[in-house]
Amino acid sequence: MNILLRGGTVVSSVNAKKLDVLISGSKIVKVARFIKDNDAQVVDVSGKLIFPGFIDAHTHFDLEVSDTVTADGFESGTKAAVCGGTTTVIDFATQNKGESLSTALNNWHIKAFSKSSCDYAFHMAISDWNDHIKEELKAMFEQGVTSFKAYMTYDTMKLSDEELFDMLSTLKELCGIVGVHCENDGIIKALTKKRLEDNTLTVSAHPKVRPSACEAEAITRLLSIAQVVDVPVVVVHLSSKDGLEAVRNARQKGAKVYVETCPQYLLLDDSRYEQNTLQGARFVCSPPLRKKEDSKALWGALKNGEIQTVATDHCSFTLQQKSVGLSDFTKMPNGLPSVESRVVLMYTYGVQKKRITLENMCRLLAENPAKLYGMYPRKGVIKAGSDADIVVFSPKADGFITKNTHHSKADYTPFEGVRTKGKVEKVYLRGKLVVDNGEVVNENKGKYIKRSKPNFI
Ligand code: URP
Ligand code: ZN
Ligand code: ZN
Q: What is the CA(115)–ligand 3 centre distance, in A?
């Protein structure tokens, strides 16, 4: 039976208009001022905002790292995602050193298959760059993996400048895109070594060994490489004003760069690390949280279009897992859980606080990631022919974030107690109601999404 969403305000990247939406099977078939369909199940959504299903293009589910594995695999991670209004995640299939890309991709298919409550796609994080890997790239594209990640730090992952150059050149030929974790590894190592010598390794040291200059330097270097290669590139999880200035400088010189930031860099600051206890450990992620002025600069960049996407970098650990690094932060698994909170946080602290418009929110969290990562117009927009991935959002609800209602297996949220405005009420995934009243009502309906080449926005 068709579903008719009646009387809501449909949000796109250009406007928010009172329109009805007709769903047939897995697709949106009509969007118009008044739709008549006597056979459809009519759902009254008056007073609600109707968003395209949001896309989180940066998650790490079931990732083995720092001698442990993330608290959330695809089962809990995608439940958390869909409850928060995210209908598609792009997770990082991650190649261990010495492994082929096909093995890594196969591993990620096994991790996700039949356990996902939202749709999912994969970027491929490449930690080994050589001729065999190069030969595998074509097969990745054939299997719908058209975006890749490179790290400029972390011993198990990092690529040299030469390798980055070659990777960008090869992917330019194939019309793929690379997202890069930008931090200067040498500075981090030197500052960490000093801490080891002084035995000052508690949580408060974590941000001190990764100053924003590390991010800015790595961004400048990456963008110089990308400019010589003459290829667009993505800076993932931008955290600092210095980093933003590096992006601006490179753009002035003609670099083509897309930028992603995350709610933690917009809403939290480095005062969280002052407590050398589990309280501070909750916030250990890389790059680290910065100063309030950094967050302010990032909000400004979201408003004026200098940043194109907001993702979470959801990489979750329990407090028990975090506690391993309490007296030596180098042993602490890095990352935060936030996949369930992104949409409501961006609505509350972006739209409601007038830092961004509703249309901006739709562009940053749905349309731009869909375009950049080759899923548009199947995903990221409410229009005839698109997948019926729809979020029915109550704009007036008051609430707060707490681990008690969250679906992540991390036993905390970095946003505990944070007040929210608005609520994800219903979520449709390819036409099926999967979330009602904030709870998953239809589990494991997520499918793998084979992506096309990027649509450079
Ligand atoms: O601390 C973080 N962000 N961990 C996740 C891996 C990464 O660097 O994106
Ligand atoms: Zn990263
Ligand atoms: Zn990440």
A: 21
pTM of the predicted model as reported, rounded to 2 decimal places: 0.98
Q: Which atom of ligand 1 is nearest to the CA of 60?
A: 5
Q: Which residue, by CA, sits nearest to atom 8 of ligand 1?
A: 286
439 Cα–ligand 1 center, Å: 28
The Cα 264–Cα 290 span in angstroms is 9
Q: Confirm if 8 and 19 have CB atoms less than 8 A apart.
A: yes
CA 193 to chain centre: 31
Instruction: Give the pairing type, strands 309-310 and 257-261.
Output: parallel
Question: 309-310 and 390-400: which strand pairing?
Answer: unpaired
Phi/psi for 186 (5° steps) reads -65, -45
User: In angstroms, what is the span from residue 132 Cα to ligand 1's centroid?
Assistant: 26
DSSP letter string, 195-206: HHHHT--SGGGT
Closest-lying ligand 1 atom to the alpha carbon of residue 285 = 1
The helix or strand, by DSSP H or E, that contains position 258, with its residue range, turns out to be strand 257-261
| pLDDT confidence bin for 322, thresholds 50/70/90 | very high
Task: Name 367's Cβ contacts closer than 8 Å, sequence gap at least 6.
Answer: 12, 13, 52, 376, 380, 381
Buried b (16+ CB within 10 A) or exposed e, 277-301: eeebbbbbbbbbbbeeebbebbbeb
- Ordered DSSP codes for 18-70: EEEEEEETTEEEEEESS---TTSEEEE-TT-EEEEPEEEEEE--S-EETTEE-
Separation of CA 62 from chain center: 15
Neighbours of ion ligand 2 (CB under 5 A): 181
> 105 with 126: CB under 8 angstroms?
no
Distance 68 CA to ligand 1 centre (A): 14
Per-residue pLDDT of 205-243, as tens digits, reads: 999 999 999 999 999 999 999 999 999 999 999 999 999
User: Which ligand gives the minimal distance to the CA of 337?
Assistant: 1
